[in-house]
Amino acid sequence: MAKTYAPTDLIANRRLYWIAAGLAVVMMAPVLWIIGLSIKDNAELMRGTQQVFSAPYTVVNYLNILKSSNVFGWFLNSLIVALGQTVGVLILSSLAGYAFARLEFPFRRTLFVIVLFGLAVPEQVVIIARHQMFNWFGLHNTHIALILPGLSSAFGVFLMAQFFRAIPRDIDEAALLDNTPPFRIFWRVLMPLTLPAQATLGIFTFLLAWNDYWWPLISATKKEMFTLTIGIASSQTNFAQSEGLGFLSAQAVFAALPIVVVYIFFQRHIVTAVSGGAVK
Amino acid sequence: MSAAIEIQSVTKRYGALTVLDDISLTITPGEFVVFLGPSGCGKSTLLRMIAGLEAVDAGEIHLGGRRIDTLAPGQRGVAMVFQSYALYPHMTVAKNMAFGLENIGLEAAEITRRVTEAARVLEIDHLLDRKPAKLSGGQRQRVAIGRAIVKEPMAFLFDEPLSNLDAALRGRTRLELAQLHQRLGATMIFVTHDQVEAMTLADRIVIMNGRKIEQIGTPMDIYHRPKTRFVAEFVGSPAMSMLPVAAVTAESVEIAGLGRIAAQLPGLSGFDAAGAVLGVRAEDAHVLPADQSGLPFTISVVERLGDRTLLYGRLGTVCDLVVEDTGRSTAVAGQTVSVGFNPAALHLFDAAGRACDGLGG
Question: Which chain A residues are Cβ-neighbours of B90 within 8 angstroms?
Fold first, then answer.
């Protein structure tokens, strides 16, 4: 029999919609605010940010990004770092995950536990040692320095290992009987089956790398090596940001564009990943 | 192409646990052999050892005169159909079938010829461009068989391939497998715990239990001449009833607490009746007419199957018994009737479960 809904259920549902709508407004308000600021003249904003509610509006801040800002260079740095880390994490985590899930080797369980410890150790604990190491090797102010620390992803190894474990062993065995060499089993048979996990891991890694602030702040001290997060922070002209607020907002909007694009294209995977269903 | 398989004193251990103990078996070229046994008896393990998916701890396996237990799975000349079918989900049907052939560097034209031919034989040629997710269970099963056929192996190995199909499809596929075996004439080993599959498909059945082979024989041998009590009880539906024996002669058996029944028991010399049991299949026990006397049988459940009726109940107060009656049986639960037995079809087992020579064995 079809389920019937009492009127009270509908009212409860309507209330939930209103609560959800209210929360959505709270979430969207800062985004709309900064977009509003980015299309206002800097001098006008000096008189007060309430000017955002009244015309005239302008795209001059965005034109200034194209003309004079370092944002493009920082954008490129962020892109190199985020893509480099994403590709690296996908490769290394897939290989390590496959090894932990499928290969027999000494101390496999112990090593997996050690890798998982990485999930529990905050970055702050290792940052001084890492800084010294990169200093000794003369790697600071390079793209390599910005990419390398993010490649050892405990989360990535864990996610991929779990995903490989979820693939029935019959598939590997069928491939073995099909005379398939071990690396071809990994690459041609199993890897294509992990695409959902790869998408999840890739998106998370890209977003984390794109938004990372702390390590680039330490490693990139030259202006031309800044990533967007560091570059925009360095553009603040004074503590209260009473000057150049429109320009700064335009840079922030510009910096967020790739994230928005990633989100629009991979929305389904992100929702799945956040809801914890990616491995199923 | 078909070849003989020889399994010589094969043993398999997982740590301290021995799952197969000194198994020997010879399968002739073109034979359809079924490994039958309860869950955990080691039948799938033995099949996987032949395939190369489990290591052999002791003994040897030969295929077509060549020792194969030291070879990689892909180089043994066998093809396997898995219970789950194990199709590659991201590949089309054609690619699934061709993948193994590409790995051995076969020419593209030959791969296409084999795939097309196998698809035609299995009537899946219209599915070649589909992926497994778009196929029904039966179609996936055919693709898995097709993947095995294109390799032209010396032996086919089937690991419970029908267990994921519904009852109707399982029956149809069983028939098709039998036809396929006739057409290919290939050596086939089929693992199942379903005795109907075993009885209908096998040239010979290998009954396995507790790390050992209990009996090897044709389906009729296994059914009519079980060598052990386990085989007698495992094969046949309903299971063979076991009646406690007090004494036994060549012409009769005394059922403990009930009386004597007529029997034809040759080869009794040296048989120890202590702890022995008499095995009776339902079709060899029958309800006697009211004017004939037999052993008292109180019916507790009447199971009507249309062409016959199965009566479940107690023989006196001694033991359970299943009796087969006609489809038009008027028996009702709670009724007490007299039952008799076919003296030529009784099975005597000693306390250790071994059949009396000249009867079961």
Answer: 192-193
